[in-house]
Sequence to fold (307 residues):
Amino acid sequence: MKRLWLWLLLAPGLVWAVLRLFGWERSFLVQAFAFTPYVAAWTVVPLVLAVATKRWRETAVAAAVVVVMGWCVLPRALPDRDRGPVHGTTITVMTINMFVGAADPATIVRLVRDHDVSILAVQEFSPTARMGLTNAGLDALLPNNALADEVGTTGSGLYSRFPIIRSHSERLAGGNLQVYATVDAGGGVTVVSAHPLAPYSLSVLQLWRRDLAAEPRADILMGDFNSTLDHAPVRRLIARGYRDAADATGHGLLGTWGPYAGKPVPPVTLDHVLAARRIGIKDVQVHRVKGSDHRSVIATLVLAAGR
Fold:
């Protein structure tokens, strides 16, 4: 009986490890996989119990599960040795999902001012949010913009201290608008306010995958990706030539979303700054924003000379 209970404790972590290792999350597991770091922490419990009860076969399996889950998750807590160029023009970028435009504009403007943010990306950007940011003084700090505000959750925008050479917006298959801009930061830098559809139900999973696969090549992709690094589509996107700034600096386990609507949902990392590998990454910070269920992600990047 004790052995049966031990296997019952082991089985979920074992199945999870296999699915995560091969990127096989499907159906309702897509949402659940956002919580993989918590499952990784849990897998230590069956290992300890197996060792304590001297069940050596179970110990070997539990140890293998812990190793696989640790290999998948722990690197996010360790800074990379290679974070790209270290010499060049330093800029600070920030992204925030404004939660249907309800995020406090004064908090966002304060973060922009205090952290000397050069480029700001916003999602769930409504006309009310646009007016609020203007009234809070954002236009004086970041006078150039490319905005696609809409009522509801679909709008997005980019604000920049640098001149914007060209810009446009496109609606993804899932319905969200994304703003694209080339900013003159000592040379053209392409930036996207990214917002793929959330995998909120089984019926939209294909749209979620299509939105992530459709993300364009850019120097900086930042926003609410509605995905964590435990989702295979995001890992494929990063493999196209990006670094995740939080992952590269050892801050990849900082939660950026949750709790939600008062529910006890543990924080998960849905918001990202992805920088092309020719861009260096110096630092990442995550800050709460009053009125939003998301936190802001602020990244300090290095634009190499002659990039």
Observations:
- The mean pLDDT is 95.
- The two ends are 63 Å apart (CA to CA).
